[in-house]
Amino acid sequence: MEEKLSLSENALKVLEKRYLKRDKDGKPTETAKELFLRVASTLAAADKQFGASDAEIQKTTQKFYDFITHRYFMPNSPTLMNAGRELGQLAACFVLPVEDSLEGIFETVKNTALIHKSGGGTGFSFSRLRPKNDVVRSTMGVSSGPVSFMEVFNAATEAVKQGGTRRGANMGILRVDHPDILDFINCKSDNFKLNNFNISVAITDKFMEALKAGTDYELIHPRTKQPVGKLNARAVFDMIVDGAWRNGEPGIIFIDKMNSDNPTPLIGEIESTNPCGEVPLLPYEACNLGSINLGLMIKEENGKLCVDWDKLAEVTKLAIHFLDNVIAINNYPLPQIAEMVQNNRKIGLGVMGWADMLMKLGIAYNSEEGTRLAAQVMEFIDYHSKVKSIEFAQTRGRFNNFKGSIYDGKDFLTNKYKGKSAGMITDDMWADLDAQIAKVGIRNATTTCIAPTGTISMIASASGGVEPLFGLVFIRDVMDGTKLIEVNPIFEAYAKEHGFYSEELMTKISIDGTLAHCAEVPQEAKRIFVAAHDVSPYWHVKMQAAFQLHTDNAVSKTVNFEENATRQDVADSYMLAYENDLKGITVYRNNSRQFQPMNLEKKEDKKMPEIKAVEEQPVEQHQGEEHKCPECGAILGYGEGCFICLNCGYSGCS
Question: Is 265 exposed, middle or buried (0-12, 13-18, 19+ CB in 10 A)?
């Protein structure tokens, strides 16, 4: 384990500032190599619970170490931060119930603080809370409603520093048929309110039917379950669209679609998701995540680059091994969470580096070829993740809530994927897995999920999640005032190979990050190297749908709009998302928030502002307001100034 790590300078800086062990003076006490060995050895040691010998554990340690240090796979941040340390909390995502009582609400506030302290993010449905002005019989007072209690959660989050590195993130969800839905839709119309929350409206199929029919729909009292009024579906939909057009809030989730894929319906209904929306969870559930770096799942064959399917299968199975071990050793902040996780054993294996893979293969993101490959890749990962989970069911046991689950005697995989092959896995192969599940079960209630990846993609030097690049070239100001041109390495290599690279051209591209307006760039390069705003909303949605088809949980993805996009454009994307069986959708219109990308503004008459890289601000010394990237959720910086997200390229000034 003495080989040199293949990590970029930015990756090493991010590790130093956020992940390495520190002494009481804040100085790192381990190297990046020691961090990865700490994680690998801690996770491999979990095999001892299942009868592995010391020699076998050492072999697994080497495997885990190798696939992390080669950047083939990265676990979620809490695992990197806390594995092998006293805290020992390794999961990223939690959902807590919010009961309709003062005692229940503040019990959840307390539990939220414990989770944020441990390094996790939290999701809540506030749909159980009675509407404002409803009579509280025990006191004969009146309820203040869900939005007022969201402000309590927001304030508590502000007061708790998460894991010593960042403040907690929350998802707040309200059903579209809750009587206070209009207040909820508008609760973030002011960009300075509820800053520790993402919000989403839980859209029902009944609402969508009313929307298509142009009729009203019923509002349901959460306590009595009786209708208490009606609203016009089109009017409410237009209000949701207007909010999303103005500042990206609220997002929407299709709650009935999420529950149709709920693997354990007898245990409860899905009410909420994690903060980025990709993990639908039951109350008190948690999910640990990890991502495969697709940009490195490539090989040369007959003089041409292609997907290395053998390597992808190997990495997928090893990742499932790793993530199941996380559950075995995780130190959860609440006993209710520990019990629920042990019973369902949900894990979420996803991907990053998708844009990198496409660029290396010469495939346009916004193309049928691109979406077809997306479906093939995710189908392949989904299949091999299930193969490994079934293997573990035989040696370690199936998840406790298997009986009555979607897998219990229902040929679930066969029925779900019949006739939907993307070209890699046949109907017979899914049927064979169902036959194995009927005999031994499956270890994990879910195995796949696509997260935005945030800082772990920085460590892996990979593009974020399944997003296109936000920009191909940036100008970065380093601490001594020197301006450096930062060029995507895949694009840089291509430009040099094809003879059109120059410093002057790179500077020109850095103005808005895209090749669209550069006449000196060949058309083939423009076809391959597209940035987020070169991709129409249609292709953003279609790409998300291609990945969603073979993803157990959901897909975190932003649909980017130009600043001049209309509300109708947003509405059309929402309808397209519903028709394509997405579980949720998030949109962002350029410059619709205060702290947004400078590199997409017209700068003919503007001086380039100074940009501070995120790693230049030590997390222990932050002061002032925290600014998070609206694209991927990564922290941009604190206080006043200009910031850039090293993950996706978003930048902005306070």
Answer: middle
